[in-house]
Amino acid sequence: MRKFPVKALCRAGIIAAMYAALTLTLSQFAYGPIQLRPAEALTMLPLLYAESVPALFIGCLIANLLSPYGVWDIAIGSAITLIAAIATYFTPKFVKKPLLRAIVGGLFPVLLNALILPAMWLLVMGDAAFWINLLSLGATQLIFVYALGAPLVMLLKRYAMRPKSPFSVTNRYVSADIKKRDTSASDNGKKNSSDVYGIDAANDEKGNVPGDIDNSNDGE
Asked: How does DSSP classify residue 1?
């Protein structure tokens, strides 16, 4: 029977709580065209952790309960975060280089928030400054997602490679890449150890293991 993923569940709770707490702490500045939401750095976590997808949605939903835009921001703003998180999660399936993966994965929370929220404010609230809102929101998103989120993901991935790490990766596509690299490194290590004497033990005509002494001529 498969063990219940307690570690992943705990991480999900921490991510949701962090997003909500960081946003609510800065609630005076966390809503509107110029959003000071350092919690948006966490939107890069789906590149490594599958459980961060629902966690970000729940965290954003809780944070938006205090939004001055009311039910519209609760529904649409939280949905944007969920859609962006899903798209970011699937990015490693198509993008294999780590740096490019971080760049592409961060585009979803930046662009979706910058495009959809100003449109919502225009249609629902009558805020006609669409382009100004788009540029200002896009700029703040860029800062938090790339200046904070990208280094965070790189650091977590580094620690995730350690044995029994609490930061072990759960994104299936990144995990598959790590396993392939580990398998390749293991195979190369075996090959190098067998060739260290300049011969292949498997093809040694006398069947000797490299380093064994040939005693066939002893006593002659």
From this structure: -
